[in-house]
Design brief:
457 residues, alpha+beta, FAD/NAD(P)-binding domain, 7-stranded mixed β-sheet, 6-stranded antiparallel β-sheet, 14 helices, 22 strands, elongated
Length: 457
């Protein structure tokens, strides 16, 4: 079986690469076939779950602001970004009939807020230009032919297949969400074709505080990897499901502050997630793998100084203590009432569980005891609730894979391999990863578009 241009992988970068290749061929008046080989039953499986099913397909910031959110490979991405920047990408979707909307944080979504519309738009755009999309076709081996071009061994719906092509685009994705087809197939193929693979690790993933999971944590698969299915401890159960708005979080490595973020944070069945949890996870995971001590310090009152919050706590305590409704309450009960005025009610049990020093039991005799509420300790905990990070959720639920094909072995102006002529690489397969918020998908789309465009010339 033959095709002039073969694309392995029908995800975001692969679909866009196939479209761009076919568009370029058509515009030049050439007669050539573009084909996508996708092992899953349908293309775009990972797109379907992006943005909780709403698909935040890009972020419309300009390059100066956008590049600050590219954690690795920003210089490499620059050419492809300008070739298909977020405004051009948004206009492309609009021209294809998909209405779009830009929301808080410059995040662009389909107006329907249905990720399936993004997939359908990409697929229909490819089909309209004659691209063949073969699903249920799993590539098993890739090799360069001595006479030029490539030979692929695949398993199709009807059995083994051999494919020949002049140009090959690897758009196989990384290792995250293996259920969508991202199983890292492209890494050994790229390596066999002469490329270096930078160390791989999960990024944009849940960070697991010590004590958040049960003792089954000891059976973790690999260094610091804690499977998401590991049962929650009592503390984890108290925190799970709580969403915090407008808080500050500091990432400390070996006791040194390396990053500070402000925004929203979620506690889930995996651990600490949400926008700023993900933002900090890349450096945290890399440090954990290297054996460093990692801590997240949560500031529930980032806009208020410690001295001010201390006075606020003292004032609230006097208010609660003197309230007639508190007359028959124990000190712990009064403390809970006060804390509910300082944080979301559902967070109070976890706060008290994690900070037992807020209440002190003083024994005055065999039967006489007194409970003291430590107000300065509460104020300090509000500003610096420290979580020691024991590990992280791995590829089973991380958003992206960090690491990949070394970008200095790929031309940033064409996405063509410097090691193997006729080979193009794009998307998550490359050693390029960005923050959540539309940055990763924009990178996939623009690198895929440039790879297809270049292959089609």
């Amino acid at each position: 079986m033959k095709s002039d241009i073969l694309v392995i992988g029908g995800g975001a970068s692969g679909l866009m690469a196939a479209y761009a290749a076919a568009r370029t061929i058509t515009d030049k008046g050439m007669d050539a076939q573009v084909c996508i080989l996708e092992k899953m039953p349908r293309p775009g499986r990972k797109i379907m779950i992006t943005g909780k099913g709403r698909c935040n397909f890009t972020n419309v910031k300009d390059w100066n602001a956008f590049s600050q959110h590219v954690q690795a490979g920003s210089a490499f991405v620059k050419s492809s970004f300008y070739n298909l920047n977020p405004q051009k990408l948004t206009e492309w979707f609009e021209d294809q009939g998909m209405r779009t909307v830009v929301e808080r944080g410059d995040r662009a979504f389909p107006a329907s807020h249905r990720s399936s519309e993004v997939v359908d738009t990409l697929v229909n755009a490819c089909l309209s230009l004659g691209v063949k999309i073969l699903t249920g076709t799993e590539v098993k081996a890739v090799s360069a032919r001595e006479t030029g071009g490539f030979e692929l061994q695949a398993e199709g719906p009807d059995g083994p297949e051999k494919w020949l092509c002049q140009k090959l685009i690897l758009a196989t994705g990384g290792l995250s969400y293996k259920g969508t087809g991202s199983t890292g197939d492209g890494y050994p193929w790229a390596q066999a074709l002469g490329h270096t693979i930078r160390p791989l690790f999960p990024s944009l993933t849940a960070l697991v505080p010590r004590g958040y999971k049960t003792d089954e944590i000891l059976s973790s698969d690999g260094p610091k990897h804690i499977d998401r299915s590991t049962p929650l401890s009592e503390t984890g159960q108290l925190l799970q499901g709580i969403q915090l708005k407008n808080v500050g979080v500091t990432l400390q490595i070996q006791g040194n502050t390396v990053e500070e973020e402000f925004g929203d944070l979620d506690f889930t069945d995996g651990g600490i997630e949400g926008p700023i949890g993900f933002q900090l996870s890349r450096k945290a995971v890399k440090s954990l793998i290297n054996g460093s001590k990692v801590q997240l310090v949560l500031d529930l009152k980032p806009g208020v100084a410690l001295t001010e919050i201390t006075e606020r706590v003292k004032s609230l305590w006097k208010e609660v203590d003197s309230d007639p409704r508190s007359r028959r309450m124990h000190e712990k009960g009064k403390c809970k009432v006060m804390l509910e005025k300082l944080m979301p009610r559902e967070l109070v049990p976890a706060f008290l569980s994690c900070h037992p020093q807020t209440l002190t039991l003083e024994r005055r005799g065999r039967t006489d005891t007194k409970v003291w509420v430590n107000l300065p300790t509460i104020a300090k905990a509000l500003k610096s609730w420290t979580f020691e990070i024991a590990g992280y959720v791995g590829y089973e639920r991380c958003v992206v894979t960090a690491g990949g094909v070394a970008t200095d072995e790929v031309s940033p102006k064409t996405m063509e391999s410097k090691k193997c002529p006729g080979l193009y690489l794009c998307g998550e397969l490359l050693d390029v990863d960005s923050d959540t918020g539309g940055y990763n998908l924009q990178t996939a789309f623009c690198t895929g578009f440039l790879a297809g465009q270049s292959a089609g010339k």
